[in-house]
Each structure stands twice: as C-alpha cells, then as structure tokens.
From TrEMBL:
Protein name, as recorded: Small ribosomal subunit protein uS4c
Span list, region Disordered: 22-42
Family designation: Belongs to the universal ribosomal protein uS4 family.
Keyword ATP-binding annotated: no
InterPro entries from the UniProt entry: Ribosomal_uS4 (IPR022801), Ribosomal_uS4_bac-type (IPR005709), Ribosomal_uS4_CS (IPR018079), Ribosomal_uS4_N (IPR001912), S4_RNA-bd (IPR002942), S4_RNA-bd_sf (IPR036986)
Length: 205
C-alpha cells in the first residue's frame, strides 16, 4: 500500500487536524462522503473498530507512512520494553524527516521528506538522504553547507507557525543546527490521537 497522494483537505475533514499533512484548513465542517450530513444529523457513531481505524489513519497520514511501514513500527514498539504506545510515537518522532519538520525546516512532513531525499540535510556532518533514518541521542542534525539548502530552510523557518521547539531538541538557529538531547515525552507530540487504540488495532496481527 503506497503513500496517500489524494486530496488532503478531505482527510482532515474526516480525521481532524494533522499538522504533518497540510497547513491548510477546510471551510467545510461535515465529514466527506454522502453520509457526512446524515451522520451529523442523526448522531450516528463509529463502531469500536471504526474508532481504532481512524486513530491508525491519523498516524499514517500525519507521518506520511504506508500501511506496511506503520505496521513495522508497531512491531518494533511491541518488541521493546516500556509503554508500547509511547515507544511507537518516539520511533516516529526520531525519524529524520519528522525531526526536520519538528525543527521547522519544512512546513509539512512531505516537504521534510523531500528535503532529506534531495540531500539538503546532514547528520553528524554527513549527508543522509533516507527520510526514515532513525536518529539517536546526541546526533547533530544540520543543513548542508550550500547556499540553496540554507536559503530553503531559512525561508521555512520564517514561516514557522507551530509552537516552540520541544526541550528534547537543542536548536541553534544561527548555525541551523540541532542536537537530539533526549527522546520525546508524550506531551511533546502535537498530533492529537489515542495511540493505545492504534496498538489495539494491530493486536490481532
């Protein structure tokens, strides 16, 4: 199953705000589809499976993952010791493209992925062009020493609309460089979802 490339506003009407998917907002308030108005009028609720599915879809669309990629992260989170839901979020937040998005180098996750694949980002002074690259504690993430790379990121930083950079990242804006100081806490993740329902969704696989 490949990444979604269809209408983004339709997705946020169904799932709510997804910071990594798009900065745009829909003027329509009903869920997409012919039953959107009907469900709102009748108060029809999703089934338990439907609720779990939507929470899973939030993760998938926000981080720009395929179904198989997300399932691999869930399996890895289960394998590690600790709270599985939090570990899943930490794995996703430590992806190189996610960190670039969190730092404000890009406006969306798709743009962050593009920054990485086009060779604009370095980790520990070496160019890394794999968006899913799993960063580690004390890794230094910076911009390639190239005017075009720096200009691109600086322009995005000026347009940054999200909240302050979380405490687990130490960012030097003059150097356009960040150090990964720690793993994220649950409160650091700006996406609104119940990650436990995602784990439950995959519990039978």
């Amino acid at each position: 199953m490949s990444r979604y490339r269809g209408p983004k506003l339709k997705i946020i009407r169904r799932l709510g705000t997804l910071p990594g998917l798009t900065t745009k907002k829909s003027n329509k308030i009903n869920r997409p589809g012919k039953d959107g108005n009907a469900n709102a009028d009748t108060g029809k609720k999703l089934t338990e499976y439907g609720v779990r599915l939507e929470e899973k879809q939030k993760l998938k669309f926000n981080y720009g993952l395929s179904e198989s990629q997300l399932f691999r992260y869930v399996k890895e989170a289960r394998r590690r010791q600790g709270v599985t839901g939090l570990i899943l979020l930490q794995l996703l937040e430590m992806r190189l493209d996610t960190l670039c998005f969190t730092l404000g180098f890009a406006k969306t996750m798709a743009q962050a992925r593009q920054l990485v694949t086009h060779g604009h980002i370095t980790v520990n002074k070496k160019v890394v062009n794999i968006p899913s690259f799993q960063c580690r504690l004390n890794d230094v993430i910076s911009i390639k020493e190239q005017n075009s790379s720096k200009t691109l990121v600086e322009n995005n930083l000026k347009k940054r609309q999200s909240s302050a950079i979380p405490a687990y990242l130490k960012f030097d804006q003059n150097k356009l460089e960040a150090i990964v100081m720690d793993y994220c806490d649950r409160d650091d993740v700006i996406l609104q979802l119940d990650e436990l329902l995602v784990i439950e969704h995959y519990s039978r696989r």
